[in-house]
């Protein structure tokens, strides 16, 4: 029986809420991009973002300019973008940029993408395909980067467990029958972490199980309702224009169209067909969470990589497949930073030629491991990256010292780290998101920028409803809602998440470094923060009903602004 509109109104409105929280990171990702709101992949993703509204083929830049709102200027266009287009036209014309390498630590990158392949980093010391480590850096045939999630036989880890799952699985074996009073003094800290993880795991398993049941239960009625609406209106496609033009006094019809429009807004869907695709993706994602991410017995790494994930000194493992099984999130991130600007194809990156993208795969569909993150940072630094984008994050970090040592190594080599704040709608003054903005000893990481996500309008929705925030741990906000960028197979689509806000900021840093090469990592951080456009707009606190001044949600209280950052850099260089 086809449900009546009144019977599906509640599921529609519920779906609007659920879909807005189903995006995962690479996470964010995968990640806050396809549903990463990563760090790493999503709206509200614990790590990624809404699934892409992909286009079948490259389109001229002119056709995409309206969609790339993040390039617009807050003063000239009255849109809270970063002012990239205005900066190139007014401040950088006839200037000579220098080569800058930006490492993207992510799920993988489609290196054949028409809008990316011209701006990929190339290891000129390596001869492709000869099976020899020509440059003696410990990595064979690392032409465009390295894959720390690969096996020597060419296979790759895709789905992975969450860190909380790994801690619980190991803890139940190690601490079976033990209590805080009976564990050895040297084990007390790890036992306390295990107990904390047990509580978090139980809560998340319950939440994901209920969410999976809800999402799966609404697929059929929502599909039926969409078909019923199409028949009633005599159309084959229901896009936002068609829904807004519906004229009806029927309250059920009004609620149904309003619910669909809200869902489409939340997920960035162009029409109801794309929305249903999002819902089906959400179903698959929730099922993957239960079957893989929260599965205590799931351990693909043991069979594929065959390393000791707890040996943080081990660095020579993996393979050179930087594409990986699912490069969606990383491809989207890379395009935001440096999609070719002048080829009249698809989209424009914030930083074009001569900025180059180094691809480093270390983020699976699940939580990244501390060992891989630390090694990815070291690889990037040793191979010439000046900026590293990290659109991923997680709630537990059992090998945090190894990551912090890598941070310090990057600082010693003058490398800026840019990290997504996360997509859990949480205050990082009280919630954990790793890598953290502070070292274990509570001192700030001097070469790290942590970035929240902002929206396209300077109103109560300026703060993305999924973004984490903090007056201490989030440095600045940047556009992260409905960001148009590259997707695999030379397609394009919109994603949302702090996973997108981070590369927007990394792209700004790359432009500054390219045109002002003497700037240090700390200079870049200082200029980006000092030039951020402070907003005093009353906004809704993510995950809460209350409203506050936008300026209270981060250290700077502002949104990244390339135009103003260049002006500040010009003054500093005089």
The strand line-up of the biggest sheet is: 2-3-1-4-5-6-7
How much helicity do the residues have? 25-40%
Stretches where pLDDT is under 50 for at least 5 consecutive residues are 1-15, 17-63
Order of helices and strands: HHHEEHHHHHHHEHEHEEEEEHHEEEEH
> How many E-type strands?
13
Task: Please tell me what the overall shape is.
Answer: globular
Separation of termini? Answer: 74 Å
Count of helical regions: 15
Assembly state (oligomeric): single chain
* Beta-strand fraction estimate: 5-15%
The radius of gyration computed from the alpha-carbon positions, rounded to a whole number of angstroms, is 23 Å
The largest sheet is: 7 strands, parallel
The helix-and-strand class reads alpha/beta
Mean pLDDT: 88
Care to describe what's here?
- Strand 4 (387-390), helix 12 and strand 5 (416-420) form a beta-alpha-beta unit.
- A seven-stranded parallel sheet has the order 2-3-1-4-5-6-7, with helices on both faces. It has a two-stranded antiparallel sheet with strand order 8-9.
- Helix content is 37%, strand content 10%.
- It is α/β, with parallel strands linked by helices and 574 residues long.
- 54% of the residues are buried.
- Helix 1 (5-19) runs parallel beside helix 7 (251-267), helix 3 crosses helix 15 and helix 11 (370-382) runs parallel beside helix 12 (400-412).
- It has 15 helices and 13 strands.
- The model is unreliable at 1-15 and 17-63 (pLDDT under 50).
- It has helices at residues 5-19, 61-64, 84-90, 163-174, 188-233, 240-244, 251-267, 272-293, 300-304, 328-338, 370-382, 400-412, 498-515, 521-530, 562-573, and strands at residues 100-106, 145-147, 355-361, 387-390, 416-420, 448-454, 476-479, 483-487, 491-495, 533-534, 538-540, 547-549, 558-559.
